[in-house]
Design brief:
about 425 residues; alpha/beta; six-stranded mixed sheet; 15 strands
Length: about 425
């Protein structure tokens, strides 16, 4: 891997020390190429805006301005923070080394997936931090783990733009993070070519496998329905952001042995109702398997109920999948990474629920990843990208209630994003 040199000019000693520390932390990530250098030539230079003539030995220059001052292209405001610095460095790296990232030329694919080319953020994107210009951002591929850093806030922000293009104000409102924090993360995604940008307001039709909900909630009762997500979040102990939703069922699916029954049992208030029989499938060592459905539920504090359904995993029961998916809020697909070909397993369910996944949220939970690290999460993202789909992909231990709750949380985040965009 080619090493790239970052220099500094006109910065205070504490700022230089901070930059060095941040680079050392970032150096623990795969594919990070930058080191701090005191002598040129530099691949990139951080320079105070007061420096009249930045070092001419630098290929790329970013100027630091005092907090509160207007920020122009090629500048970002103090104080120096990790997301902004990382985003700028990765953007600069793409300009210096316009190579294919993680095996895919995302900018080419981005244009192919859209009706028109990406208007602003090309490989040689502006190095200035993303400002709240009203532009809308949409993810075209789930970010690699090194970008998410197992950071719940980053996972949530990425989830919010999987299905709907959103602007920074919308992201900040729903996520509870500041516009600056949202913009810094968008900058990181943009530097990797993982987002597309629309400059005009997008007319959004809220995805609706739930047409029944319109009749179930006439206008005078609609207000009660809008608080449903908050009720779910309060029940599950999750932070209740601004929300609205129109459905009461979550579907768990995946291969036999992936942990659907266990996952439902981890969060259900009642012992799950199961339809297990002795397993006669010699390709799997599991003693018993579901042939009908699993069922659990949560009683919410507003009197509503959230029902949790699990599908049978065998393909011979695929006729039940579409039936169980009817009127579902979303689908959680569980995979077992210890199986011979978990990517093929996921592919089976992507195709089996293809029609439903065009309109409702989905989350992928990958089980047994610590003991079976391959394929990694990025390989799953590659497969989704080939299907032109972007869903959150998270490691999960289905026995751990917190892990299952995070899957549900990311599902709800997509519903919130759909609702927020659809209401504008």
């Amino acid at each position: 891997m080619t090493t790239l040199k970052l220099g500094a000019q006109g910065l205070s000693d504490p700022e230089i020390g901070l930059v060095k520390t941040l680079l050392k932390l970032m150096a623990t990530e795969p594919e990070f190429s930058w080191i701090f250098a005191t002598n040129g030539p530099f691949d990139a230079l951080l320079a105070d805006a007061s420096v009249a003539e930045p070092n001419k030995d630098a290929v790329c220059v970013i100027q630091l301005v005092t907090q509160g001052h207007a920020v122009a292209p090629g500048q970002f405001a103090r104080p120096i923070n990790a997301p902004a610095l990382e985003g700028w460095l990765r953007s600069a790296e793409r300009q210096l080394k316009p190579t294919v990232y993680m095996g895919l030329d995302y900018q080419t694919h981005a244009s192919a997936l859209q009706d028109k080319p990406v208007p602003r953020f090309q490989a040689a994107a502006s190095s200035a931090p993303v400002q709240d210009t009203g532009e809308r951002y949409k993810l075209i591929r789930w970010p690699p783990p090194m970008t998410l850093r197992n950071d719940r806030n980053r996972v949530r922000l990425a989830t919010l733009i999987t299905r709907q293009a959103m602007d920074l104000k919308q992201l900040a409102q729903i996520s509870g993070q500041s516009v600056a924090e949202c913009g810094a993360f968008i900058m990181v995604l943009n530097s990797l070519g993982l987002v597309t940008v629309t400059t005009a307001p997008t007319v959004v039709v809220a995805p609706s496998p739930v047409a029944w909900a319109e009749s179930a909630f006439p206008e005078e009762k609609r207000g009660k329905a809008l608080g449903f997500i908050s009720a779910i979040r309060r029940k599950l102990g999750l932070q209740p952001p601004i929300s609205r939703m129109r459905e009461y069922k979550i579907l768990f699916t995946g291969t036999m042995g992936a942990g659907k029954t266990t996952a439902i049992g981890a969060v259900s208030e009642m012992p799950p109702i199961v339809t297990d029989v002795a397993n006669t499938d010699k390709s799997h060592t599991k003693a018993r398997t579901t042939v009908g459905l699993d069922f659990g539920q949560l009683q919410l504090d507003n009197g509503d109920r959230l029902r949790l359904f699990g599908t049978p995993g065998q393909v011979r029961f695929d006729f039940l999948w579409s039936i169980l998916a009817t009127n579902a809020l979303g689908i959680i697909i569980l995979t077992d990474n210890s199986r011979p070909d978990p990517l093929a397993d996921l592919n089976t369910f992507l195709e089996g629920f293809s029609k439903q996944l065009d309109s409702i949220p989905c989350v992928i939970g990958v089980g047994r990843l610590p003991s079976h690290p391959q394929p990694d999460l990025d390989a799953y993202a590659d497969l989704l990208f080939q299907h032109q789909r972007v869903f959150p992909i998270l490691p999960v231990d289905v026995r751990d209630k917190a892990d299952v709750l995070q899957l549900i949380d990311m599902l709800l985040a997509q519903v919130e994003a759909n609702a927020a965009s659809g209401s504008n």
